[in-house]
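SAMPLE LOG
Freezer: B-3
Tube label: C17
Construct: single chain, 352 aa
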Amino acid sequence: MPFLIRAVHLRHTNSLALSHFRQATLCYGQACYVDAIQHYLAGLKLGAAQHHYIYADLAKAYEMVGEWDTALACLDIALRLCPDSPTALRRKTRILDEKACYDSLVRPDDLRQPPPKAFSERLNFDPTAPSQQYVNSEIFSLTCHATMRLQTIWNICQLIHRTYAELGEILGYYPLSPVPIFINNTNGTTASQRSLPQWASGCYDGRIHLVYCAAGEPVLGILYSLLRHEWVHLLVYHLTNGRCPVWINEGLAQSIARPMFQFERFNLQQAVQTQQLLPLDALSKPFSQLPTKYRKLAYIQSAAIVEYLVQQSGYSKIRDLLRQLRGGSPVEPAIKQTFGLTLKDIPFLNIS
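STRUCTURE (predicted):
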């Protein structure tokens, strides 16, 4: 519900509370999720605690910083106030789905080992950028916030090593030189100062850039998924010499990075049933050039296409396809030779 419509229902609420809710909406739209949370909480202290949609919106802000349990607690309050709220019910289902996925990617027992003393000695602060610290290894150079805890940095390094090994085995390529990786917390950073647009959480431009928004440490499950996504882009770039179609590149990155959420599969089936799948020419453009409302579908659709090809023939055929693309073969004959399929044979690929 748009804020101005809600404001009618909040007309008896303290005006200062209303001001906080307006600011929360503005902060959320600017991807300043920690600030949005603080304004929602400040507004709730002043009034409107009986309005379920305030708690539902607060839950969405907590979702964006990966605080799943707190988000679910807010939704439980919203559902006590309005048990049949479709928004609260939908968000609870989605958040439970996300939490299960990211918790499965990085389990607490996976990263209990404390950093060795030698690791802390390798950690350095950049005198030209005092807000950053960095660590170098044979396979990567990592730069992150000076406030990030030593244990968190050590855990991230273990996840980078895991990514290097697992994705190297899947796609058959290991970078020949250390990969520069930059991890930035956007909390407290204005939109004009950010290295990535608001809708993006990562990119590969010869270096891997990852961003998160949190008052404290990053959620490692989310960060690991982003790392895997961008690492796939790195490998595909080298394997194809930059000649990979966008939908294959993004589909591989998305499908390898994490399992598809159940609500994403539902949205994909809805697009199939309503004949709203994006056409091939739309999936062949950088997804950043698509209208915002189509970007999520573009990622889901591309991931489903690649998932189908992998299920049919395995990653060995994907590696064969990437080699053909590197040699300059157009995508349609390359797929025909590799998989024995025409583009029309591939589910979720709308070439009309």
